[in-house]
Design brief:
By secondary structure, this protein is α+β, with helices and mostly antiparallel strands. It has one domain: Glycoprotein, Type 4 Pilin. It is built from 1 helix and 3 strands, in the order H-E-E-E. The protein has a 3-stranded antiparallel β-sheet with strand order 1-2-3, with helices on one face.
């Protein structure tokens, strides 16, 4: 019985520390993925002479757009993955934070700021 109580006390003190580590890893992954997507968007811009529209979104990094004109040299990324929380990355061009470029972000639902979460973006 004493052993079970000691294990329970140890678990109660150790488990909360791992919860923060998981969140930090997800945030770091989101920042890294956003940097990779941002670099792919820059390559797309060099080839196509413009960024994808908000309507085209990030899918043009893996699929040839309908207005190609033979300039598309993709795919620019192998796979368009969701953010670490399972949601698609958000994209807007022209951006609000970048007047001459696109905004790219993920929402961190673990850090609620309103109901949508805190934004992790390329700004």
């Amino acid at each position: 019985m004493v052993v079970v109580i000691v294990i329970g006390i140890l678990a109660a003190t150790i488990i909360p520390k791992f919860i923060g580590v998981t969140h930090d890893a997800k945030v770091a992954t989101a920042k890294s993925n956003i940097a990779d997507l941002d670099a792919a968007l820059e390559r797309y811009n060099v080839h196509m002479d413009s960024y994808p529209s908000t309507e085209e979104g990030l899918k043009v990094l893996v699929e040839k757009p309908s207005n190609d004109d033979g300039k598309w040299r993709g795919p620019y990324i192998k796979l368009l993955r969701p953010d670490p929380w399972g949601h698609p990355y958000q994209y807007k061009y022209p951006g609000t934070h970048h007047a001459t470029g696109p905004d790219l972000w993920a929402r961190d639902p673990d850090k609620a700021s309103g109901s949508e979460g805190v934004e992790i973006g390329n700004w």
